[in-house]
Amino acid sequence: MANQWQALTALGNEMAEVVEIGPYRIAERFDVALASIAMRRGQDKAFAAAAKKVKVPLPDPARHETGSPFSAFWVAPDMWFVEADFATHEDIVAALKPAFGDAASITEQTDAWVRFDVTGERMAPLVERLTNLDLAVQPEGFASRTIIEHLGVYLVKHGANSLTLYGPRSSAQGLLHALEVTAKSVA
Amino acid sequence: MIINHPILGPRDAQEFVYLGDANLINRPDGMTAGIEAFHDYLYNRDNPAGEHRELWYHEQGDRSWLVVTRNTVTHEILKVELARDVAKAQGRSK
Amino acid sequence: MSQSNRISGGQIDRSKTFRFTFDGMPYTGHPGDTLASALLANGVRLMGRSFKYHRPRGPISAGSEEPNALVQLRSGARQEPNTRATVAELFDGLQASSQNAWPSLKLDAMAINDKLNSFFTAGFYYKTFMWPAAFWEKLYEPIIRRAAGLGALTREEDPDEYDKGFAHCDLLVIGAGPAGLMAALTAGRAGARVILADEDFRMGGRLNAESLEVGGRAGAEWASAVVAELMSMPNVRMMARTTVVGAFDHGIYSVVERVSDHLAVPEAGKPRQTLWRIYSKRAILAGGATERPIAFENNDRPGIMLAGALRSYANRWGVAVGDRVAVFTNNDDGLRTARDLQSKGVDVAAVIDSRDGGDLLPGIRHLQGAQVIDSAGRLGLKSVTVRLANGKTETIACTALGVSGGWNPNVNITSHHRSRPEWREDISAFVPGAGGPANLTSVGAAGGALSTHGALATGQAQAIAALADLGFTATADTLPQAEDAPIAVSPLWYVHEGKGRAWIDQQNDVTVKDVKLAHQENFTSVEHLKRYTTLGMATDQGKTGNVLGIAVMAELTGQSIPATGTTIYRPPYTPVAMGTLAGRSRGKEFKPFRLTPSHKWASEQGAIFVEVGNWLRTQWVPKPGETTWRESVDREVLATRKSVGICDVTTLGKIDIQGTDAGAFLDRVYSNTFSTLAVGKCRYGLMLREDGMVFDDGTTARMGDNEYVMTTTTANAVTVFRHLEYCRQCLWPDMDVQIISTTEAWAQYSVAGPNARKLLQKIVDQDISDAAFPYMGAGNITIGGMRARLFRISFSGELAYEVAVPTRYGDALIRKLAAAGAEFDAVVYGTEALGVMRIEKGHVAGGELNGQSTALNMGLGKMVSKKKDSIGMVLSQREGMNSADGYRLVGVKPVDPNGSISAGSHFMEIGAPVELASDGGWLTSKVYSPHLGCDIALGYLKAGDQKIGRRMRAVNFLTKTDTEIEIVSPHFFDPEGERLRG
Amino acid sequence: MRYSGFRVIAEALTGHKGWKPVWRDPAPQPDYDYIVVGGGGHGLATAYYLAKEFKQARIAVLEKGYLGGGNVGRNTTIIRSNYLLDGNEPFYEFSLKLWEGLEQDFNYNAMVSQRGIINLIHTDAQRDAFTRRGNGMILNGADAELLNRDQVRAMYPFLNFDNARFPIKGALMQRRGGTVRHDAVAWGYARGADMRGVDLIQNCEVTGMRIENGRIRGVETTRGFIGAKKVGVAVAGSSSKVMAHAGMRLPIESHVLQAFVSEGLKPFIDGVMTFGAGHFYVSQSDKGGLVFGGDIDGYNSYAQRGNLPVIEDVAEGGMALMPAIGRARLLRAWGGIMDMSMDGSPIIDKTHVEGLYFNGGWCYGGFKATPASGWCFAHLMAKDTPHPTATAYRFDRFLKGLMIDEKGQGAQPNLH
D197: part of which helix (H) or strand (E)? Predict the structure, then answer.
């Protein structure tokens, strides 16, 4: 029934925004549901079993793992962010809770974040002006929190020329602005 | 500064928030300890010129509280531990 | 005149000609020139004036150590004071002007100071200007301040952009002279990640300035070949025009890349400069050495420069500084200048060599055992007076003099961690000392290896050693042939002959006399010497003068130079533009904005926004015809109290707290109890710091057995979360508690007023009657099928709810609420009306939650349960925080309803004198209450709880208001709370 | 010897032959009535006032390095008395009044210059807080004014009024605030103390304390044992190190505060200014350098140097406030060790050891306090009772819950 409700993107539009600057493409993503899932104390077995059952990957620290229907990345000890297709999993907590029961604390995070997928050749000069992480030596599937222009951001490296950034939703415009001016300066 | 996070490896200290002497872990029990004990716990410091065990919070990271052993004269970092492990090792539980 | 002093050779592109101006005069130069080399090529030696005596000055160097040739570069908003002409890369259309001179560089009125120099000795101002007392600030100081400074800053905003970046490497090599090139080459070939940074726009260092050969070819050619090879390596990053300015902890270096300074204006979107934070595992300092002068009477005239610089201008830039030159040296390196200039056909008048014996230079008048004792030429050197070995004096006509007192290794960066350089007798110079930045080693001249061979050898060896630590095996390829002659320096710091001034620190006009005076007055510690005479405090940080000054002091005290000690260089190595350090964090981008879910809609309504931390919140929403903010706010308040109002409260911190110990955890962090709270209910919580002061407050709801939702104040959302993590990880590590912030995940609106329920019931799918959803109820509901949360809580004192939906639907929800509210004339209210209503209700907020107040101060003392342990419980019981006459929260009303009061006013008894003893406390927050029709305020009043009903004064000396007030209960409105339970 | 303009002229005409050493370099005596540990501003001022105002004799100052080598020689030279709390304001106002007569008092021109200090206001809440503060100042006999936006603009038109992230809405001004030539303060007190017979002993580090039956007998130093009836410690960042010799743990942490100066510039800023929406404060020295600073680095440190993030943070604040300084260059950065106390306010008190006194916890505000700190510490040491303006600066205020917490940050030194 949610379709009765007009959703707005973090940038305040009805459609996700795409910006292209030189070799870079910055695409807002609006179609991903997000939840935090944290293991309750002493529930290791039940937690792992439930995750297996509903196909929630539980990658190691600083890693992202793509799966279906769920992908996930590690955010803190015993805590992950789980990604799913928004169209099918808008109420992602309801989708996960039955499986995990008391083994996990699950919280909807979808709208706490703005997501930008950044792609393009020559990613290095852009990235090294945004974050202090040494992405060049990190493998694909690297995931970490970092700081971009004073904002706390989750960064996932999908490949040499492909990144995902999750930034605080309320500062979506500021984060996009930072990406744009930096892209211009190295394009 | 670079803090060698026990889980995540070397991270820039800019990602962390500093609290102070790691002795703050040893909070007295409020039901048994009195004002004197809490006063000494909260206010007095060794403040050494040399090795110092101190609490850093990885706010722009994985939200772990760390106990960092650092030389306050040279800033050399000698050891980094998860505060939760240190607290448990010092007998703290619930 | 057109480049009258340009001679053959040099690394300039003569096929292109650049036009530029200095003080409005047009000149020409070539690509590869600096402003200094181009001006010298045009026969211009006079480029600046000194700080104190306004002495005419020309460049003494060809590099970043330059103390004299400082100019204002560019014009308008891009004007850049104190720019060293010796490193300013020439570009077509460059404009430069002289500074610290009036009316003109040639005729500077302030040069009168030079005539009065005998009064302006070191520290003279400490001894005078004291009488009469008032005159210092009214007369003397303003004159001094007007005379102060070098270049001028325009008042305009810097129009250029600045970038910041982070670069990572195994090995950072600082300096691309022979040592640095060799180190980088060795590491590059070994496959390590290398960054080679050099401040010059042309890599090669001294090799570009010398006629020496390396590996059988011209040094500059060898350098170009190595640079080319390094450029071809993917693992090597070559950064020219890039200065490593600071060494910080754990291998982090601050580095400035001058991206666009060699252009008239940066390309669109491109930065002027980039600040790099380089993270290195190992670093090698190959920063070379700086030549030092010998002090003698009038050794500061334009045309007198360091011998190596004279050589650089000839070899690298094809410039003869003078048509007839002389050299004054105490070492063999100085002789090179004479040889090189002669071989380029320049008339070398003489070499004045302070040393005796040794070989005589062939074909040059080589005066051994001689010293220069004076010079002549007002705006430029005309001649020098020489004391010959035989005791006779001779005046030698020359327009340029090269002076060499030996070379000082550039130890600067090694002392950024306060390590002090060590003296090396064999080269009479300080070299890097122990305790420098970890994993940084110095090679080549910077490490005291002053020959070209020494540079190549140490560069290679240290690169191999550094890489070995990192597990790389680098091979020691055969070194190219290069000279390895000792410079055979025989120390001569200053010429003792002569009564006049001999300059040590040329920019600050510190002379040998000043050092003598400092000694005479017992300012003999090098730190006292520096601070008393200002030696080394000029824009060059004493790169050319410090060692000289120390040596003179050592001679005076009879101590050795190492015993006398040395001051340490501080970062940055060369001065850095503020814009570069700030990067993009300026103007509106100083800090990121945070926008609320209703922002778009509120903008459409013409809302006025206000900064609340980084948030922009609706402050009020003016309606057509309203001319003052008060009209709008009064309307919003009255309409809410009369019917219903809507307010975006998303900015309040929201924290999901789950786990089987969640309740017990909350009992520990809140001073009141939450484990007993029923599911589906919420409760006001008071949070203390461990010192017993109030930290934060908010309502926390129990959504399930093991699931709570905590709200915090907007201001403390982050610090409370940090505190909860601390409690959970450090204090009670075994508690089963998981927390995560949901502040931005939910759009939350307050719906308040008698018609709040009616409005909400129109859109909420469930029954929210008082029976079904009582006061302080909380739960998950749906609105038109959308998952939502409802909390029946009130900040305004009205029947009120807070309703939340996922943030993406926040815009839709506020539109639904506004539409559903139309029939009730619902208003949207902002932070001002929110403030009015919470003060009418006596709720504490910002002004009262000041971190200096206890629960008792706020009248909430009973909330601190002693039955359980909670943060701050014990220390809140300290006597000083529980005295009967301590501050208590009270309400304040003016006795005359038209009387005006203001927050920050202090309570005083009627008739009390203006003194500390009269201070009864202060008004924390004040608003106009349209409900009561007068100003009302909250305040902290000493023993306030015993003074209800008392008449006092609210005094604001700043606005000269003194209003009679009545102390009342802080609950101005509906004290029994019937309305919110309605 | 007395300094004056006439003297300068006379000396100029006779080749400056007559200037005498500003202080002697005496060898330490076997014992003294008073030993002041620490030859920085506060220690030298203490010795000076002990001799001059309290007519005491047999006084020595022990300095481990050179006189004035501590924070008095590495601060940003600001003086003011714009404090909020009653525990602080009378003391700092007393200090400001002493500054106002200092040069005539010790016959040395320390360039006390009251060009005014403004604290910028960016929100209504800030205005309320500054109004409370300003009124408190006036009740304590200090001066304070509230400026509106236009008044600030008239004073400093080049501030960021038109494109600011946080608009400038006004300022709290104290016209009597200003700057002083910091080194000259140390030298002036040293000279004045030396003239009154105080032994200033440099390169003499205290390595221990001799305490017998709860009473101080003297101090062990790198130059041997020196006896004393009374010992006062005023060593700022080294407080914990020195007091440990007496077996004390202090409510103090040592932190690094960085300070900065730009290249010399023609007159740009007349007075002192603090940014209310970022970590930045600035003034311009008589030599033309912009002298500025910001927040402490935030971690315990004795290194006397800081790190890059704070330098960037300060520059960001500067550029946000004054976009015209973009092309001004930062010349030098340095660091000092701050004795950060648990409530951000100082301690001037006796200790559990009879005859041992402590002066510290000045955080980054010690310079402006120098004269009053010296005076009040001398008062306490000479009379064994606190000076009326320093009665609140007791060790036991933390035990009793009488903290003097200007910023309301609680027991976390790096937030004060």
Answer: none
